[in-house]
Design a protein that fits this description.
Layout (H helix, E strand, L loop, with lengths): L1 H14 L34 H12 L4 H4 L25 H4 L3 H36 L3 H29 L7 H12 L4 H25 L3 H30 L3 H21 L3 H7 L3 H10 L1 H10 L3 H7 L5 H10 L9 H38 L1
Helix pairs in contact: 2-6, 2-9, 5-6, 5-7, 5-8, 6-9, 7-8, 7-10, 8-9, 8-10, 9-16, 10-15
Length: 381
């Protein structure tokens, strides 16, 4: 009888659609973004930038399986996904926070975890689509090679974030409107470099920094694995954008460069808004303006915002989009000092952290197996 109940429960779970788990209903159809521009073929197969070809080789060498590399048996508290103290909550210390019961704070924690990882998930689907677009539209074969490896990376990231939300949280948030707008802008522009700029520099740069902040503060082992392993891939993606765009932007006219800088400024404000949590405050029935005002001036949130731009700002300067308008925008956002960050050091550290976590994970698994073997041996005795 128990086996029959288990089969029924499994069948019911299998019948649940992702659409059934969204906090607010989403259109079950596809989101169609009009695409313009040419699909570019090149008959030159021998030439290529060595650094980009080296990155392509690393992309091939570093492929991994999310099912096997991550220990999915590790538990996650859906009401405190990051396993952090209350002080990390964006509205901790506000009037709204103080009037909440413990049960309401737990529910808020679940919604914040769902919202955060849902935006990671939707961003990765955007990255998957843009990577495919880059393969199609770039004129150089070396860029097509690397972008093809990135498309595989992004598919893996979509897979693992979906599994994490489904199995460990059980609730999804729709895509943030600001993220959706930037994705649409990058994909609908006919110029081949705009998807690079929108995705590889802005969206990927912000995601890489956000993953890093949460990787470093989380007290949950599974979350740390997921974020660290994704970051190992993302560090290569940002490097790809830098290499591909730096030479090209050096050849642009002042007017063409100013146009890209305008895109960067608008995109950075959209990315700032992406992490304000407005959807959560609305869903929880809070005073939205009060929550936004509090988080805008919260010292913890200001520090978080500065860290979010630690990868974007130096990359934008490195590729040559460093006009007065861009610098004014970064000063307004309070992130201009991030221009001095050493991207090479940051990205090497991202790879080193992932490898260290993998070694620790292997050691823990070996220790667990040794305990099982010892228990079996004692039982046999």
């Amino acid at each position: 009888m128990k086996q029959g109940h288990a089969l029924v429960r499994a069948a019911e779970e299998a019948a649940v659609s992702t659409y059934d788990l969204y906090t607010t209903p989403v259109d079950p159809g596809t989101w169609d973004v009009p695409s313009t521009g040419a699909a570019r073929f090149s008959w030159e197969y021998d030439d290529g930038r060595q650094r980009l070809l080296d990155l392509y080789q690393r992309g091939k060498d570093k492929q991994w399986d999310a099912t096997k590399r991550i220990d999915w048996s590790l538990p996650v508290d859906p009401c405190n996904v990051m396993a952090t103290s209350d002080e990390i909550n964006p509205i901790y210390g506000s009037r709204q926070w103080e009037v909440l019961s413990q049960a309401e704070r737990d529910e808020l924690g679940r919604h914040l975890g769902s919202w955060l990882f849902s935006q990671f998930l939707h961003g990765e689907q955007g990255a998957l689509t843009v990577a495919a677009r880059i393969v199609e539209s770039v004129p150089d074969m070396d860029s097509k090679f690397y972008a093809a490896t990135q498309a595989m990376d992004e598919a893996r990231h979509v897979e693992l974030y979906h599994r994490f939300i489904r199995d460990k949280i059980g609730m999804y948030y729709p895509i943030n409107a600001d993220l959706g707008r930037l994705l649409a802008d990058a994909l609908s522009d006919s110029r081949w470099d705009l998807p690079y700029l929108g995705m590889q520099v802005l969206i990927e740069g912000l995601a890489l920094a956000a993953f890093g902040v949460h990787r470093d503060i989380t007290g949950n082992a599974l979350v740390k694995q997921v974020l660290a392993y994704v970051m190992q891939d993302e560090a290569r993606h940002v490097a790809f954008g830098r290499l591909a765009l730096r030479d090209y932007y050096a050849q642009l006219t002042a007017a063409e460069r100013a146009d890209r800088e305008e895109f960067v400024v608008e995109g950075c404000y959209l990315m700032r808004n992406r992490f304000r949590g407005q959807e959560v405050w609305e869903r929880m029935g809070f005073d939205v303006e009060e929550c936004l005002e509090f988080t805008e001036h919260s010292p913890i949130q200001q520090a978080f915002r500065a860290l979010l731009f630690s990868r974007i700002v130096p990359c934008v300067r490195d590729i040559g989009l460093w006009g007065e308008k861009v610098q004014r925008a970064y000063a307004d956002l309070g992130v201009l000092d991030a221009a001095d960050s050493d991207l090479e050091v940051l990205m090497r550290d991202d790879e080193d952290v992932a490898e260290r976590i993998e070694r620790e994970q292997a050691a823990e698994l070996a220790a667990r197996q040794a305990e099982v073997d010892a228990a079996i041996g004692a039982g046999d005795g």
